What does this fold into?
Amino acid sequence: MAGREFGHHLGLPQALSGLPLTPLVPAYAELAAAQHTAGLRHLGDALTPPGGGLRVLDGVYVPSRPRGVRRVDGALLDDLARTATATADFARRLAALHRGDPQALRRVLLYQLIGLLQDRPETERPRVALELGVHADEAAALVAAARQRPALTPLQRDAAESVADAWAGHRLHRTRTLLERLPTGGGDPALESLRTALAARSAAVDAALRSARRAEDRGDPEAASATYLRALRTAADDRRALGGLVRVHRPQPGTPPPLRAELAAEHVELAWDPQGASDDGWRLLCLYRSERGAPRVREVSARGGAARDTGAALGTTVRYAALPVREGRVDGPPLVSHRVLVAPEVTEVALTDGPERVGCSWRRPPGAVEVTVEHTGPSAGAARPPHPDADGFTATGLPTGSHTFRIVCRYRAPGGELVSSPGIRVTRTVHPWPEPVRTLTAHPEDGAVRFAWTGARDADIRLVEWPGEAPDPGTELRTADLPPGLPWPEKDGALCPPPGAYARVASVAVLGERALAGPVVDVEALGHVRQLAAQRLPDGQVLVGLDWPDGCTHLAVGWQPLDPAAAEGGTRIVTAHAYRRGGLRLPVGPSGVRIRATAAPRSPDAVAVPAPDAEVLLPPDAAVGYQLVRPPRRLFGRGRTRLRVTLSAPAGTGRVDAPEFVCVARSGTLRPRDATDGTTLLRVPGSDLARLGTVEVELPAAPCPAPYALRGFLLGEHAALVRLEEPSPASLVVR
It folds into this structure.
């Protein structure tokens, strides 16, 4: 009789019984996705040629040969999978489905065809059935089936297509929820069989849970664990079985758990020993409660013996269980962690202490609503309470001693209440600090500098020179980090800086290991000017020579006339660059002057320690001139040539210390280079020049072969103070 295959009665006139309300195959969603990817409306599109002719009443048949039909079986599906068509991959999937369940292909095909017809108005369904490729002989029966079988809402359709996955995964509660969404009495025997099997398994689970609870009550954890495990293997989503299993195996307080759960700033770090598990690995679960206190379970992705849970809600308490899995089912007792309050603490806590103060900084965890600080310590009630901000706090007015602070983070739980973290305690000691130096002064004193200060009572005062920028007054320092004291020698309580030194002297108040930076003062020891000398030039100019002091940028060179009636003196500021490039000439005039040179301070704000003045006394502008006085021609020959030497000085200058004058002759017309380059003709003592003013002396006859050249030189200690005015060299040649 037609229509009795596989237990279904689809042949007329009983074509309306046993219609599927669900495809009832696992992984139906993947099958449907592959079907849509292949561009197929239903499974039959992959089986029939473009002309249609699909039969579904007495099994699934497709046209074969000019007028024949062929049952769709494993061989046909394998043949279709080997073709070079766009649907070959999908046919391969259908072949696997048929091998797992020979009834599945026809059941899914009927479910899809009826659903496609129910999506269209009843008047269009006969035409649509033919367009879907159904054979004309069976189109009317399929339309009648679509009219008789209950139409499914989108929620029911989702349940119908998911229930097989829930049942295959042993999730009884999920299966029950999905079945409750589907209409009852729809005439689907497979669905009714599933409901019966579900009721039987649920009853077995309830009985196992009661037995496990009794074993737990009588103190037999091993029996309770085995029974809870049996119930969980039957119903993988039974929270009562999972909760009982976790309760039996949870670690005792104070003992190391087999599953370690460490709270970090933004996640929970999990680790356990994976040895002994099957090849299927572990199933890691997070157990928590909802906002209303209902138990909840969430699966966490795990790899090996480690995992990181980023989904734990702030302000909640969670516990973790790792269950070994074999072939998709729990295969042994779980590894359970301690309870974890998801309320991270602040991290990277750093404490500093100062005068009557403790400072603290931290890294605030993401999601923390606020951070509070509690203070305990000596006279904590009298101290100002710390008011933390996002990154730390500063507690002031603290007495000396140990102070403890409890830092607590607060979080907004999913229910809206504020939940506090356990808090961390940190301790810091407030040490005695010195009183700061208020003022620092320096006064030059006889080539030294004397320092004075105010403040810093009962503290040791150190004067130092920082290698870089000096810290601001009041900066907190450690004594071990201070630079050494000033290396200047001491004289009667004052310090003697070396000539040319420039230092920014800083005061530091020191008490034990702690110190406070004080004010600074700039001190400059002016460099000594040495080898000062002066040589007169014509027109009242003086050429000054000296050894430039190291480190000095400017010199103040002044002159003062020795004669009070003479013109006023003057001062000139000279730079090192200008002196080295062009020397130094001063317009002192012909009178005697006192010339002084001192180093000028580099900074007007520095305390200058003066150096001894370098000075030189320059007598009035005296000059020694000489010339040959040739005798006039006489009747009987010419007289002997004389040399006239004259000392001249400004009027009113008084006695002038004159040098010795020496005249030297050298054969030829080249002048002698110095007083030893030739024959000495005569010497005129300086005393004679100073007393007489002009001296004439006859030259010796033929002191050397003629022609010869003469030249005069000034010798003695006063030679540099008197100018030598020389006549034209041509006038000094004797022939």
Summary: The chain has a mean pLDDT of 88.
